[in-house]
Specification:
alpha/beta; 13 strands; elongated; binds ligand SAJ
Length: 420
């Protein structure tokens, strides 16, 4: 059956909402992008991405030039609503669903019979049903799933988690397979119609709770595997062995593919989402919790390594290379490198030179500290007694090896071992 989708209202024009809105608009759909931040609304309306992401500028310019994408502060009537808002965690690591609730409250007044509401935000199991329940309470004149299972429903509700990799979003949005989790089968069918507009990957239909857990499992899987690599790096440090060589050689086995140790695990996804599983099943999610703890402990370990080596110098100058949460992005969320630099700055008298080719200024948390300066990469290395490689940004590969030879190098990333 065909479900025509002519207008889509995307709630949240962040890292996921903006590329999704622009992609839909570039396919001729009338897109209303909604964001509570007026600066985001203004930027999108001039066709400017406000964060760097390959090909997003082109896509956005095409969408606004075609006149198909318009940003605003309030939701407007549409055939489909896509919610792409953050789901952070609280201090006790329980999920904070306040942004999803606010999105539901914002769209409820403009919903109409025949609409589909799609939750894309990464969410703990049960959130899509909770969203439908909230909408149902706000719009008693419309029939929502799952209270009345008898079809037809007025409004269909589904969970279609995003799974694109920052740095490759525009391509992965189209090419990756997509999980379509409906609260009912008809909900999944209606949601699939939205993704068919641009999807080249395969859509896979399931129920909403399964889709919720699938998304969390994907990121927990990666977290557990990175934790294994990070734990190996601690073991090798104690045994005096080169972890990069150990992994490289172990990976010559046909069924072994160990990931890379690093300064820790950052970003707003992998460092957060596994906690949603732990909070749903705390007694049973033992490995997932331990992996989080192993990865969260890694920045402290790297900071201690740097401090220990700095003790040999009277007035040590430490060059910290990289501040973002991973290579070649400008995103600082949950960044392990930031945590390391903060620990160093607060604990000692070292002079810290931070070099990050993706940042034009220091973030406010660091800018006010007296012993930190943002510096050009080559200059930072030239002035340093200790060079700490915290993020394997591509331009760091151009640092002349002879500049490093004369310095103490602590490389958390494998860049100087040719393994990053
Ligand atoms: N990292 C390592 N070693 C590795 C790989 C990564 O230390 O071998 C670190 C990175 O430096 C970074 C963190 O892990 O600090 C996470 O980086 P990432 O590139 O693995 O993932 P994200 O957070 O940028 O994006 C992930 C992706 N999920 C998976 O690959 C399973 C992406 O597909 C999701 O859409 C995204 O989370 C999300 O939004 O959930």
């Amino acid at each position: 059956m065909e479900y025509p989708v002519k207008t889509v209202c995307v709630i949240g024009l962040g890292y996921i909402g903006l590329p999704t809105a622009a992609t839909l608009a570039s396919r001729g759909v009338e897109v209303i992008g909604v964001d509570i931040n007026p600066r985001v609304v203004a930027a999108v309306n001039t066709g400017q991405p406000y964060f760097p992401e390959p090909d997003l500028d082109m896509l956005l310019r095409a969408a606004t030039t075609l006149g198909k994408l318009r940003a605003t502060a309030e939701p407007e009537p549409a055939d489909a609503f896509v919610i792409a808002v953050p789901t952070p965690f609280n201090d006790d690591r329980s999920p904070n669903l306040a942004y999803i609730d606010a999105a539901a409250d914002a769209i409820a007044p403009v919903l109409a019979s025949g609409n589909v509401v799609i939750l894309e935000s990464t969410s703990p199991v049960g959130t899509t049903a909770r969203l439908a329940g909230r909408l149902a309470r706000l719009r008693r004149d419309l029939c929502f799933p799952p209270e009345r299972h008898a079809e037809p429903l007025d409004v269909h509700v589904a969970h279609c988690p995003e799974r694109v990799l920052p740095g490759r979003m525009v391509r992965e949005l189209i090419e990756n397979d997509r999980i379509i989790g409906g609260l009912t089968e008809a909900c999944a069918a209606h949601a699939e119609a939205v993704y068919r507009i641009f999807l080249q990957g395969k859509p896979f239909r399931t129920d909403a709770s399964t889709a919720e857990l699938v998304k969390l499992v994907e990121n927990a899987y990666r977290d557990v595997n990175i934790a294994f690599a990070n734990e190996l790096s601690l073991i090798c440090d104690q045994l005096g062995l080169n972890v990069w060589q150990v992994i490289e050689l172990a990976n010559r086995h046909p069924r072994v593919a160990i990931l890379r140790p690093g300064a820790g695990v950052g970003g707003h996804c992998i460092a957060v989402d596994p906690w949603f599983i732990v909070s749903s099943a705390p007694e049973r999610a033992r490995l997932i919790r331990t992996a989080r703890e192993v990865n969260d402990a890694k920045p402290g370990f790297v900071a201690a390594q740097i401090r220990e080596r700095a003790e040999r110098f009277k007035h040590p100058v430490v060059a910290c290379l990289g501040l973002t949460y991973k290579p070649d992005v400008d995103d600082l969320r949950e960044s392990p490198a930031m945590a390391i630099v903060l620990q160093l700055a607060r604990s000692g008298s070292e002079r810290i030179l931070v070099a990050d080719p993706n940042l034009r200024s220091l973030p406010p948390e660091l800018a006010d500290l007296p012993n930190i300066t943002l510096c050009d990469t080559f200059e930072a290395v030239r002035q340093a007694d200790i060079v700490a490689v915290l993020v394997a940004h591509s331009p760091f590969r151009r640092i002349p090896p002879e500049d490093l030879l004369r310095r103490v190098v602590i490389d958390a990333t494998g860049l100087t071992h040719g393994s990053a």
